[in-house]
Design brief:
- By secondary structure, the chain is of the alpha/beta class.
- It contains 6 helices and 6 strands.
- The chain is globular, with a radius of gyration of 18 Å.
Length: 198
Amino acid sequence: GPTFSDPSSRLRVPLRPLRLCGKPLLIRPQIAIRRESGSGEPMLRAGECTLTFAGQSNVSSPYVQEFLKSAAALPGVELPGFIGREELGAQFGRSSLLVLPTFEDNCPMVVLEAMAAGLPVAASRVGGVPDLITHEQDGLMFDPNDPADVRACLERLVRDPETRASFGIKGRITASERFHPKVIAERHLKIYQEVLNR
């Protein structure tokens, strides 16, 4: 599984590959991220970052087929498909941030695993995701149907290493204090005890 790391160490290294994990969504020209506002070539085209789209998809879906075709034509895009826990931890260690661009999700474990590993997270404001991330405190959330909102979140994290480090540190604290298995088990036991004592 993911290993814990010191998120502040991410300030001392060049921007690591950007890893996007989740359902395909973001291959659109208007999402092109530049290191500086309004200037320069998009980072992906310039070879300054890597986008890794990980996750399982229905390859018979026309949407997924079109996404895979479009993504394969872009430089710097990796499409490993489903990856196991060990490789997921390795991906976290090589990444600058995790983005979950999904249209629906209940409790995406990848968000909690990334936070526990000290990786800053940006995710869609859908389903149960707002129960995991407090926007602007331990991560960022965006509207997956609004390309400008998605882009603004990504550009902010790409351009601001201090923000990435801060969200990494605070996200790790959130994961430990609210979602550690021991904490969850204690909450469940408390509920059972309350029910039995009625």
